[in-house]
Structure formats: structure tokens, C-alpha cells
């Protein structure tokens, strides 16, 4: 007999895990049981409600396949992905802040020359995207890698529209020049809904939440001797900036798309004057010694 | 901007659910977010650990089909099923205690006459199972329904061995006689492992836990004007009584299988003397007025 009761449940169940050989796993399952039992005691579910929870988790699992990860979406809309991101990226002040990787980095970005146009379908308003990668102390970082991917002007990634968008549309892997700069041609991304035709979409609908993310370009930047950063630049003025359904927006990551009237600069970027410009500098923390 | 940070995460995410129209759903998602974020902050998972959690939940969902409910097994081995049972069945003192329904009540038990033999495969040691159903004040309850199902002497239910065991083996729906008694012939059940060839079995193995349940017979008893009870009678002396992997054992539900040498009683049950006997009286609480 274990003496299981409403009062002792967490204690009895954690005791059953006392023999877990791996100390990290033991700590995780112990904490899981304590928090899960506290949750159940707080809400006191009816048996029908508990069955609905089981059904929801089952449907979420069955929605997953090679191109769809419904549990990641669930983690995203509950703010858990961003919390895990925050815990794992406590950066020195000054370094560019992180945000979630998201589910659309399914394919490698093709290496491209600086100045290349990554919009292969020309769906959206043309725009130059540029910035400088530097170290926390301001030193420019030549040869840094900048991986960029984004949705088009209609709010879709290439992997969501195979056969409609060209392969590797709006993806590119760039290397900064001797002054640490990168620049490329693209289109202004549009806000978009996360995939909402599954259990997570139904949860959002039932709770009065919209499924949208504000317009953004994904960036992973890395350089020798520095901690790589996975982040976004968000488009100032986009709808949903204050209600990103995955809680990914940070104030320091929002930048305006400006209109530039400067024939010499337009010529350097190889675009017509005037042109639209999005600038985003990236600061990387040095790897701690 | 929402001001999401490690410190504010739960507050920001619960605020996103503020517009949930159904107040019960709002309370559940709010509590879920609070407890889930507290859990994540407590264990501070690496990104690889969080990915393993996502993979575990995905595999658990994909293991589910018409005859296998892996999330119920997960709920069982984490003690959540028993906690939900305890919360929903706070009985008046004296009434028979409840325990989990379990996953094997997939088919209806066939109505049978008192004294019938429910062991159609004769796999196990023959045994008489009998008891009296009464109200909290001791009044016998004639015409009460007693639904019984169990594993055979090898530890398997009929639904686990289609084509091997006869259909509806070791299942029966009995009606108590004018003195509130039921009796039937069966075999002594054996302890058995819950299905452990999936993610839940791997969790048990990784945490040094066995997958076994002590020997028991399932009983659902109900009578007019009384709260029905879903419970088990456990066999005294069975292995795993003090470490049931689903935490279902309660001291008040354990009964010995005795050997009876009483020719007259054997004759009444229609068995040879001496015989094995398991007795389990059931007390039902009256429906509150």
C-alpha cells in the first residue's frame, strides 16, 4: 500500500521515481509530478474534462508529421517556447536579443552573394535589407554568417506552398564583407497566421485569440569566437506587433521600413531610386573564456 | 509589445487568454499556463531537453489508436488518473472506495445468471467470487447491478488476446438477489504489466520503475437511488500490492482468497469441496437529496 490520497498524491508518485538512475531525469520527473498534481488540484477537473484533455493531447500528437509539429505550435501559443528561449539565452547587455526559431527553417538556406535578390517569386513590395554584424565592444565582424528566411508579401513561406513558390524562395545564407556588413534584396514580409487547422487552432478560437504573427524576417547570425543568435527583425507598424500569438516580439527587434531617396545609394544596392530599406544591426556576445 | 520576459512570462501569456468567453475554460488555461511556466522555470530545460519533451509527447500521441490510449497510460503512471478519481469521488465514510476504471472496459459485460462461470478459457485457479451490496446504513440492495471483469490466470484480458481467448471471457453483468447478494465462478486473476512497448513503457524503464499492477477484479456496482462505484478488489498477497504502477491500490479494497472446506456451501455454489473463495461486500452511498 502506498497511502495514495488527494493530500499525498504528489509525494507518493514522486517517491515512485526515487530510483531513477539519471539524476537530471529524476529532477525533471519529480518537478513534473509536483507541478502537474498542483495543476489538477487547482482546477479539480471532472472526469469528462480530463477525458477532453486526453483527447486534445491525442489529436495534437496525431496532427504531427514530417512538415507539421503541432506540439511545437502548442508550446509556442502557451509561451513556453519563448520561455525556454529566454532561459537559454541570458545574454550580456548589448547583445542582440533572441527569439524563437519557428517551424519554417526546414531546409538549408542557399549561400548567396551580397546584394542578391532572394525574392524569386517577386510577390511583395521590393525592399533592401542590410545591417552590420559586430562584437559587443563594437568591433565589426567580417566573414560572419547571416542566415535569412521569411514569408513573402502574401504571408507564406516557400515550404508551405511547394509547386507554387520556387524552391528556396526568400532564403539566403550571406557572409559579411570586410566591414562586417551584409545587404540583400527582398520583399517586405507580411504578417501571417500560424497553421490553425488543427487542435492548437481550435484552442485559439475557443479562447478568443487570433493565430497571427506580425511581419518579420528570421535571422541567425554567427561569427568565430562569438555566441550565435537566432532572432527576427520585426517590421514597425505591422498588425499584431502587440499580440504576436507566439509571444516572440521584443521591443529591441522592431525596425522601420523607410523610404530612401538617394540615387548614389540606390545605385550601390542595384535598385531604382527611391527605394524601401530595412536596416538591422546584429551584436554578438563573445564566447565566455 | 507585450513585455514578455523570464520574469513576466506567465502573466503575459495568461493575459492573452483574458478574452476567453467560457469562464471554466478560461480558468483551466490560466491555471495551466501558471503551472506549466512554473515547471519550466523550475527545471530550466536546455533546448535539446525541450525538444525531447516534444518528441516524447508526439510519440505518445502517435501510439494511440482504437485499442491503445497511451496518454491515459501516461496519466495513470504519473498518478493523475487516481488523483482525478479521488477528486471526483469524495464519498461519505463507510461507502466502498473507488479506484481507476482502467483501459480494458472496452466491451459491454454480458448479463449472466448468479452462479455462472465467467472463465470461458479455464486458464487459472478456479475460485468463487461473492459479496453483498448494501446501502450505507446496512440495508441490503436487491436488484443492484454488479459489472465484473478481470484478467485470466496468465494476466491477460480477452481484448488483449482476440482469437486466443473467447469473446467476453471473464466478464459478466450480475443482478443481486433479494438479500443483495451476488456470486459467480471465475479464476484467481494474476498480476500483469500495463502495455509497456511504447513511450510510457520507455519512461518507466528509464526511471527504474516496473510496469506491473497487482492481481485484481474490476467491479462497477450500482443501485437505484445510490451513487455507483467503480472499483477493484485486490488479491491479498499478490506481488506489487505496495507498488501498483498506476497507484490504484487502497487498503480497504484488499481481500484474501481463502480455502473453504464446507460441503454444503460448495454444493450451493455448484463447485467441488474444498474450494477457493474471494468475498467482497460493496457499500453504496445514497444519492444526496
Automatic annotation (TrEMBL), chains A, B:
<comment type="similarity">
    <text>Belongs to the intradiol ring-cleavage dioxygenase family.</text>
</comment>
<keyword id="KW-0479">Metal-binding</keyword>
<dbReference type="InterPro" id="IPR050770">
    <property type="entry name" value="Intradiol_RC_Dioxygenase"/>
</dbReference>
<feature type="domain" description="Intradiol ring-cleavage dioxygenases">
    <location>
        <begin position="129"/>
        <end position="157"/>
    </location>
</feature>
<protein>
    <submittedName>
        <fullName>Catechol 1,2-dioxygenase</fullName>
    </submittedName>
</protein>
<dbReference type="GO" id="GO:0009712">
    <property type="term" value="P:catechol-containing compound metabolic process"/>
</dbReference>
<dbReference type="Pfam" id="PF00775">
    <property type="entry name" value="Dioxygenase_C"/>
</dbReference>
<dbReference type="GO" id="GO:0018576">
    <property type="term" value="F:catechol 1,2-dioxygenase activity"/>
</dbReference>
<keyword id="KW-0223">Dioxygenase</keyword>
<keyword id="KW-0408">Iron</keyword>
<dbReference type="GO" id="GO:0008199">
    <property type="term" value="F:ferric iron binding"/>
</dbReference>
<dbReference type="InterPro" id="IPR000627">
    <property type="entry name" value="Intradiol_dOase_C"/>
</dbReference>
<dbReference type="InterPro" id="IPR007535">
    <property type="entry name" value="Catechol_dOase_N"/>
</dbReference>
<dbReference type="Pfam" id="PF04444">
    <property type="entry name" value="Dioxygenase_N"/>
</dbReference>
<dbReference type="InterPro" id="IPR039390">
    <property type="entry name" value="1_2-HQD/HQD"/>
</dbReference>
<keyword id="KW-0560">Oxidoreductase</keyword>
<dbReference type="InterPro" id="IPR015889">
    <property type="entry name" value="Intradiol_dOase_core"/>
</dbReference>
